[in-house]
Design a protein that fits this description.
Shape: globular
Helix content: 25-40%
Radius of gyration: 27 Å
Number of strands: 17
Number of helices: 16
Structural class: alpha/beta
Strand content: 5-15%
Length: about 500
Amino acid sequence: MKQSTKKIFLSIAVLGLSFALGSCHWAPSTSSSSMIIIAVDQLGVNEVNCDPQSPTQARSGIALICQESVRFTHAYTTSPLSGPALTSVLTGQYPFQHGLRSNSKSFLPGRVNTLTEVVQKRGYATSFFSGGAPILRKLNLQQGFETFDDAFTPTPQKLFKPFAESQEAFKTWLREIRSQNFFSVFYVPDLAFTQTVTVSDLGQTRNLSFESQFEEFDESLYSFIQDLKSRNLWDSTLLVLVGLNGPDRGERSVELPNTNLFSERVQVGLLIKPSQKPRDQGLNWSYDGNLTLADLGVTFFEPFEPIHLKDLDFPVHSLQTVLKSPFSEKKNPPERFILTESAWMEDQPIRYSLRWGQYLFILDEKPQIFNSLIDRFETSSLKTHETSVRDLWSKIESIRQKKQWLLWPEPLYEKVLKWQGLAAGKLTSWERLAHRLKDDMEINNLYSRELLALQNWENLERWAQGMKFKDLEKIAHKNLKKENRQKFEDPCLATLDLPHPKSSD
């Protein structure tokens, strides 16, 4: 091909792309559209795969969003705890700024301005639909929400409210507000409950696994999107699918899910589908720069009012420019530290990690430093004095001392065993722990309750005798007598020469 011909083809390609971008009017400004945030527990970056070559199920909601959204490949949560992370989305602040730092004894102070309060003042109808704990009213996240639906009573058979049920509540609410612009948030804990039976749209019962829960959520998301389209709300609505934390796969034996600050737990999936005109063809691209969920909150705030709270050590940046064009020269913010923290263990200091480019710094008493670019699974820790990280570590130490952050001590092995057993929720785990941690009454009570629920009277009697639990010993003894009596009175055993159970006090 001649050089002049190549130039002609190149010019045509550039003009075609320019026409496509110019004719497709994306409206990243949230001030003129409704907004939906779907915040999902255990939705990591690998669960949000927009590769068209990758196989997906036929009714995939994520695949639909991918066709018309920007995918952020290096989004990091501000905390592996759901409450602090979601609060960062709603405030544009890190947990140490907004004040909600745990899922239990912490709550959002009333003085903190939330996105919900801002949009409500501008005439938006506001609603929140929670799938259950820990996102409940006690966190005070209901500020600005006219409807805050956290009504759910857990049972042993049903520990959460599935996304599909929250959808039905949302549909009812939509009928009430009619054609008003709205701001709605869904908290979806579904992926964390891998022992819950799910059934596909074809009526097939899935196996019990993380993958089965993900398929169920993906199908529910597909139905949700189709319903928005049928109501003519899809194009006019800005929709965000965001993970609050990554999946807990137990890949690090010495790490607990809620204090794990490695990438597999804190690098989350993030898709943003801006509002657009109905005639537009959806465009999609990826953004590979580091960002935090606090940046996501600032992005929502920007069209309405600026956030005045600033921190020079941990600046946050709006993503509005990224949403306008994949070729923006100013879309990449200056290099900065990205902060993640966990305040889960109340009897220990808060655990912090910082990211700078490809480097991960975990601020433990024995610091852990990784080059995630060449050490993808973050297994080979660097030394603080190595040339590549020495200057960065010096900056981190300066920040840490200024903010008076303590280095995180490694928890006792027995404590790790305890919480791993609690997370597993299985008798085998509690039995092992109960015999190892005999002084821990929480484990002992859980093990005793499990034996009672299973009516395992022999083991309960031995356990109660060893621990000197007289009441439990009596319960086990009486039920063993009852079982023996039933065996003796069984007509099928009448012909056998069995001794009658001895009576006892």
